[in-house]
Amino acid sequence: MNSGNLNKDSLAIMLLCSNLALNYKIDKIKPFTAIEWSKFAKILLNSSIKRPANLFNLSKEDLKEQLFINDDECDRIIALLSKAGQLSFEINNLKNFGINIITRADKEFPKVLKEKLKDKCPPVIYYCGDISILDNKLIGVVGSRNIDTYGLEFTKKIAHKIVKEGYSLVSGGARGADSISQEEVLLTGGKVAAFIADSMITKIKKREIREAVMSNNLLLMSAINPKSGFTVYSAMDRNKYIYCLSDITVVVSSDYNKGGTWAGATENLKNNWVPIVVRYEENIPKGNNELIKLGGIKLEASNFELPFKEYKIEDKNVEKPYYEYNLLSLVNNERAVSKNIADNDSKIKKENETIDIDRKNICNIDKNNYDVYVLIVDKIKEALKIGLSLDEFREKFHVNKKQASDWLNRAVEDGVVKKMNKPVKYKTI
Asked: Within this chain, do residues 136 and 79 fall inside the same structural domain, yes or no?
């Protein structure tokens, strides 16, 4: 992909949600996180601006008037969008490595990530290789980096089973079960989609990786800048992408109550994204047994011939098709029941009218309305500059304790507020 064939919606999302064009020695602005972008895009969708492409060339006054955001956020948006020239240069540099970029605005973007992750879906994905591999049936394989002999043999068997049954592999490409399954699938003539958490550029320089990519058998993907190195956060973050892209994920080995494999598996079980199949035999780690207790399905050596399709749980969710107005795929499932475009447009119009009324009179907004927090988060940050306890915050905003707690927890989760102990107080970061 080069800057010449980018649609303007994608360009705007890249500028707002990636750090490709930023020089942190000079630039003090930060791109939008996935959750920040989702919240902003909902406001954008319900404004007269509608699309990211329409943000270009708007003045600060235009943004304030149409989006009801504060000066700092307006300045942030304008500053990020001003980096289009540098972004074009960076995109072409990545193209020289064979690295492309897709955003939520592109039809090639994995729809399953939008459906399952919703506001936690990454706005931007970098990839190298044949993206059509994602159209295949995928089995995920995850496991601890330090793998024993039993786990090694099990992983190789799983890799052969994946290819034999006509699936492709999705993994994280990390040392241990991930890389072993990847190597074995490729050697057996299968295809692999690897969602990595370290430098894609460094990966591509390895001969075996480059050859697998060029033969259209390996797809590398990442939600981080291809020049960025490994971080624990990015490794933990990519876990959910592996699960959500797969039909079933196999857990080879997991520590108990610690480590990335445990965190990813329990997050999947909590969200019920896909079934997980857990290795069960002698000498397995404690984490494997505990994951089975939590809902993982045993995969015993004596039952290894059972086809993967027998482990697949049919989706009983009837709230489909997934509602994807225009390009943003940002609305929740309660807004996913429209049967045609006319119904959708009518619903959006009604919601716009409601939001216009609500913005004029925030005090009268339903306390359970999702958008209330979005509209008053700046007031929350302002109030918490001096630090307030839960009760002090509740009294200041004239809300009940549960509502106050919900808002504070969301602010902490968004990274705009921190919780301090002894005494317990909340303060703007």
From this structure: no
